[in-house]
Every structure is written in structure tokens, then in C-alpha cells.
């Protein structure tokens, strides 16, 4: 799958993780983006300004440069990507420090009380 925000990076197919996009920066750092993470990322794009969205993308790349090997996961407790030596981060690990939030207004049903 083509993720337009990351097209400038070298994409490599990982046969052990075929459902996740795997990228390398020119300086050698490596990162994966799971489909659920990307869906969540696109949700931020729909709800925030282009400037805030670009801040999220920039922060992702900063984190990759700092940590060298990163997997951006949809759910930390149940990652799709199986790799050794990588750190696993969820969307809120990127957006919360930037103070970019999506308010979850959903709540449980009142039925059954």
C-alpha cells in the first residue's frame, strides 16, 4: 500500500511482515507502519489542520531518527509486526506530547441500568 506521506523514504518489502509498510531513512534508520496506525493517522488528518498533521508526520520522523528502529502500531498490546530490537509506539505516543488530541465522545449505553 502506498502511504503518500512517506513516499520520499525507501520502502522495503519485509516478507515476514507483509501487511505493514517498512521504510528506511537515507541515514539508515528503519520504521514500520501498521495499517491500523495509518488509519488512525488519517483520522487526525480529517480532524485537524494541515499544519498540525504535518507536525505529527515530522514528529514521527524525529522519533525514528532518535530511536533508530520503530514500529508504529495500532495497538501496543496486540501488534501485527514481529521484529526484534524495535520500539513499539501508538498514535498517542506521537500526538499527546504535541498536544494534538481527538476527543472520544463515545460512551457506553444507558440501557441496562
Strand order of the largest sheet: 1-2-3-4-5
Number of strands: 5
Main beta sheet strand tally, sense and closure: 5 strands, mixed
- The share of residues in extended strands comes to 15-25%
Number of helical segments with 4 or more residues = 3
Q: Which value, in Å, is the CA radius of gyration?
A: 15 Å
What does this structure look like?
- The chain is built from three helices and five strands; from the N terminus they run βββααββα.
- With 113 residues, the chain is α/β, with parallel strands linked by helices.
- The protein has a five-stranded mixed beta sheet with strand order 1-2-3-4-5.
- It is globular and about 45 Å long.
Topology:
Blueprint: E1 10-11, E2 21-24, E3 30-33, H1 35-47, H2 50-67, E4 69-72, E5 87-89, H3 91-95
Parallel strand pairs: 3-4, 4-5
Antiparallel strand pairs: 1-2, 2-3
Brief digest:
By secondary structure, the protein is an alpha/beta fold.
Which key features would you list for this structure?
single chain, 113 residues, alpha/beta
Amino acid at each position: 500500500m502506498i502511504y503518500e506521506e512517506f513516499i520520499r523514504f525507501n520502502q522495503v518489502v519485509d516478507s515476514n511482515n507483509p501487511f505493514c509498510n517498512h521504510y528506511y531513512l537515507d541515514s539508515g534508520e528503519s520504521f514500520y507502519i501498521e495499517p491500523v496506525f495509518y488509519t488512525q493517522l488519517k483520522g487526525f488528518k480529517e480532524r485537524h489542520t494541515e499544519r498540525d498533521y504535518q507536525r505529527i508526520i515530522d514528529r514521527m520522523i524525529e522519533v525514528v531518527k532518535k530511536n533508530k528502529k520503530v514500529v508504529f502500531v495500532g495497538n501496543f498490546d496486540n501488534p501485527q509486526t514481529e521484529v526484534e530490537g524495535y520500539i513499539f509506539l501508538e498514535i498517542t505516543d506521537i500526538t499527546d506530547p504535541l498536544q494534538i488530541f481527538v476527543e472520544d465522545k463515545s460512551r457506553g449505553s444507558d440501557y441496562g441500568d
